[in-house]
UniProtKB/TrEMBL annotation:
This is Uncharacterized protein. InterPro entries: DUF6397. Residues 1-13 have a biased composition (Low complexity). It comes from the Bacteria. Residues 1-73 are annotated as: Disordered.
């Protein structure tokens, strides 16, 4: 099935749209209720096409083999137009994990705007055309009723994978995994105070745009893997990354320098 966009994509809500997009979440979930966390995290370069290189600007994803013009990410409204489905169905598919957001932005409505790569939406339409028309399968109808929303989990996974790929050294890769863990979880895996201090200095931000205090409060629940199953995945990956870092640079304080974050 070939799907062609009917309007020019816009990274946020689009001109003339007065209400928030259908997949905007007024109370962002940290992943509670998610029964199946990501299978695992790679500590090497990410293999997904949109994860090979970092974001440039606030809402563009480089395409490794594509033309110089880089496609704009789509919000729920534009994504639904691309797939030629309603926004409610689009949101249901996104919550069920049929496709994953690659970025997010807080809006002036105090809601989260999830953003999706158009090429992945087209690939989904070609792969699963039966989900775009007719009655929705039971799994798509029952998950929202149970409060399951895989968007925060999948976004953290993709964002962390990108940060790991961008990391310059083994300790920076370990620090990227710490970005989604609570301090007690990090302390449990990194008992050495000097190592924790180094990881804290190297720890990247999950959201790399300036945020107001109100926006920081809005996105805060999305930044941490609070679900025990999801946190366990990152803790396992952190242990593996630490073993590699310690074998390469046994004395990180003397061999790795990092400017303290403001």
């Amino acid at each position: 099935m070939s799907v062609t966009p009917t309007t020019t994509p816009h990274p946020h809500t689009g001109a003339g749209v007065r209400r928030p997009p259908a997949d905007a979440t007024r109370r962002p979930s940290s992943g509670a209720g998610v029964r199946r966390p990501p299978r695992g995290l790679r500590c090497g370069p990410a293999t997904r096409r949109d994860d090979r290189r970092p974001l440039t600007g606030s809402h563009r994803v480089p395409m490794p083999d594509g033309p110089p013009e880089r496609p704009t990410l789509l919000n729920a409204t534009r994504g639904a137009e691309l797939l030629r489905i309603g926004t409610a169905r689009f949101a249901r598919l996104a919550r069920a994990g049929c496709f994953d957001p690659v970025d997010l932005r807080p809006s002036r409505y105090r809601v989260i705007i999830w953003l999706y790569p158009p090429d992945e939406l087209r690939a989904f339409a070609e792969r699963s055309p039966e989900l775009l028309t007719g009655p929705a399968p039971d799994r798509l109808r029952t998950r929202p009723r149970r409060g399951t929303d895989l968007r925060p989990v999948r976004w953290r996974h993709r964002r962390t994978a990108r940060l790991i790929h961008r990391a310059a050294d083994p300790w920076s890769r370990a620090a990227a995994l710490c970005a989604v863990l609570d301090p007690p979880d990090v302390a449990a895996e990194v008992p050495d105070r000097h190592e924790r201090d180094l990881l804290h200095r190297l720890r990247p931000r999950l959201i790399d745009i300036p945020l107001t205090a109100e926006q920081r409060d809005l996105v805060a629940p999305l930044l941490t893997a609070a679900d025990p199953d999801e946190a366990r995945v990152y803790r396992d990956a952190l242990r593996a990354a630490l073993r590699t870092a310690r074998s390469v640079v046994p004395l990180p304080g003397a061999a790795v320098t990092a400017a303290r974050r403001p």
